[in-house]
Amino acid sequence: MKQLSSQAFSAVTRLFHSVSGIRLTEAKHALVTGRLQRLASEAGEPDVETYVERLLRGGAPAQEMQRLIDRLTTNETYFFREPQHFNHLADRLPRVPAGQQFNVWSAASSSGEEAYSVAMLLSEQLAHAPWQVIGTDLSVSMVESARCGLYTFDRARMVPETYLKRFCLKGQGAQTGQVLLERSLRAKVRFEPANLMQPLPDWLPQFDVIFLRNVLIYFDNEAKAEIVRRVLGRLKPGGVLYIGHAESLSNLGLPLRMLATAVHTHA
């Protein structure tokens, strides 16, 4: 595979940053080259450099930029990742007033495992109140994948056995090695595209809980602060914001109070 030149890498990552707000460092050079090489091949270009040149001069179809975003933001994840947050949420659920709508937002939902993990927990433990889970992601292809609710069994390795039996259908034949989320659970989770670096969609409600995990690491401090302030505008008073355990919001001047590791609420 021909390596992307440093000049082309810098140009395409600047373009990507202008659209997504995400900065890809030189450490991602090989990953970006590999994903662009596949895009070039699919677009019928002879090599990745020619593909990037056409993309930069605006000679590629408009939908090619969305394909670029889709490929460069795709991340592997799995169900019940960072389980401390799900335990923390479970401890709060008995205090939800009976009959009160409970809304959860998976703000960088990728292929949907986080949102469905929350839905399993709420379905099991929040029988006394109506609830909904909304998942949003920058990548349109990830949103479409999440709506399907079909995953390799490896992604479900952390799902509790009782939840596997209740919410997951084991694939057979051509779908051996996969699990399909049960239809009624999928119906309770809504997935839509959204860019956290832009004004949020008007249809997003106020949330009791927001998961904003393992996405802030891709942004500089200015962009982090901008995203978190925007997201906080959709968090109810007393609501909870979960971020990734490898992420930090310190020294950003945000109106937050820490409740536990990587768990915050309004100051």
How would you describe the overall organization of this protein?
This protein has 267 residues and is an alpha/beta fold. Helix content is 39%, strand content 19%. It folds into two domains: 6-73, Chemotaxis Receptor Methyltransferase Cher, domain 1; 83-266, Rossmann fold (3-Layer(aba) Sandwich), CATH 3.40.50.150. It has ten helices and ten strands. The strands form two sheets. Strands 6-2-1-7-8-10-9 form a seven-stranded mixed β-sheet. Strands 3-5-4 form a three-stranded antiparallel β-sheet. Helix 10 (221-232) links the parallel strand 7 (207-212) and strand 8 (235-243). The longest helix has 15 residues, at 6-20.
Feature tags:
267 residues, alpha/beta, Rossmann fold, three-stranded antiparallel sheet, 10 helices
